[in-house]
Design goal:
The chain contains 5 helices and 15 strands. It is an alpha+beta fold. It has 2 domains: 175 residues, TIM Barrel (Alpha-Beta Barrel), CATH 3.20.20.80; 117 residues, Trefoil (Acidic Fibroblast Growth Factor, subunit A) (Trefoil), CATH 2.80.10. The strands form 4 sheets. A 6-stranded antiparallel beta barrel has the order 3-5-6-9-10-13. Strands 1-2-14-15 form a 4-stranded mixed sheet, covered by helices on one side. The two termini are 29 Å apart. The structure holds 2-acetamido-2-deoxy-beta-D-glucopyranose.
Length: 314
């Protein structure tokens, strides 16, 4: 709790409605349990430490430049960067400036590198090989097992079978992580970053230790009478949320209700991460920083709120 408390906001809540079922003694003094059920890495960065290629999680923005030609791999790369979707520790999709994915032409039949796919498949999946003693120097292996090489200022092909790291090698690139000092570190990054084998254990360790019954005891003893608990949309599909999210957050929420009741506290549920991400921030559950919540997600979002309301009303 020491970790959590110093980032909590004390909220004074003034309700204008009263429920016939539960008597409300207004106002409440409540505290926000940030990072408890929706990961916000800045509150506990150490949970992100233990992964291979830890700097290349979903949402890492990179500029990839041919050292030989001193030209960027993708066009219009002067401002932001191309965005990684992580498949596993060494394999990625690259989402470029127009939201499309870099891949091989003709659905992977060709060797020319293009960025035309709206959803990534095998032909948009690349392995990144980093130079052992200089992780900014990379080569990219295409799904046809050949390395990308620059042919000219406007042509990149996946047809290089050689090796080597020299400056004039057309398959060698320099990768700069643009958002290195402000990386995305949310629920998507932690679960997908650890991968399906480890993520469940990491998240269960977190839920079992970050906020415990002792914290509810502490809060109520110190005069707080409510908590606000942020949840993510995937909680409505617990215990089998879509990958990479892992099951168990609903049980953690149930525990919080049990403890709140025991210590005479109220709970405010806050749908903090809506499907598609309402804001592209860490706490919005985004994969890559794009805000893609919109009309098409309204029904899903209402269903999540209905789910929570039904569950908590029993
Ligand atoms: C990563 O994913 C690729 C593509 O699915 C696969 O070929 C490779 O074996 C995986 N590597 C690891 C370390 O799991």
């Amino acid at each position: 709790m020491a970790n959590a408390l110093w980032v909590l906001n004390i909220l004074a809540l003034y309700f204008s409605v009263s429920s016939p079922k539960h008597s409300l003694a207004l106002p409440y003094e409540a505290v926000n349990l940030g990072n408890s059920l929706v990961t916000e890495g800045w509150m506990k960065p150490s949970r992100f430490n233990d992964k291979p290629n830890n700097d290349l999680l979903d949402g890492a923005q990179v500029q990839i430049m041919s050292i030989k030609l001193q030209k960027y791999l993708t066009a219009e790369n002067s401002g932001g960067g191309d965005i990684f979707w992580r498949i596993n520790e060494s394999t990625f999709n690259l989402r470029v400036f127009n939201k499309q994915f870099m891949g091989l032409e003709n659905q992977g039949e060709g060797t020319k590198v293009v960025a035309v796919a709206n959803t990534p498949g095998n032909s948009e999946t690349f392995q990144i090989v980093r130079k052992e003693d200089d992780g900014t120097r990379i080569r990219l292996k295409a799904p046809n097992r050949q390395f990308l090489q620059v042919k000219s200022e406007s042509l990149v092909m996946a047809d290089y079978g050689g090796s080597g790291w020299e400056d004039d090698n057309p398959s060698v690139f320099r990768m700069t992580i643009v958002n290195e000092n402000n990386p995305l570190r949310g629920e998507y990054q932690i679960t997908n970053g650890y991968g399906p084998d480890k993520a469940s254990r990491i998240m269960h360790d977190h839920w079992n230790s970050y906020i415990t019954e002792q914290d509810f005891n502490f809060m109520s003893t110190n005069g707080l009478d409510a908590v606000r608990i942020p949840v993510g949309w995937w909680i409505a599909q617990d215990p089998t949320p879509p990958r990479p999210f892992v099951g168990g957050s609903l049980n953690a929420l149930d525990n919080a209700f049990t403890w709140a009741q025991k210590y005479g506290m109220k709970v405010i549920i806050d749908l903090h991460a809506a499907q598609g991400s309402q804001n592209g921030n860490d706490h919005g559950g985004t994969r890559d920083g794009y805000q893609e919540w919109g009309d098409s997600y309204i029904q899903d979002t209402v269903r999540v709120i209905d789910f929570l309301a039904r569950r908590l009303n029993t």
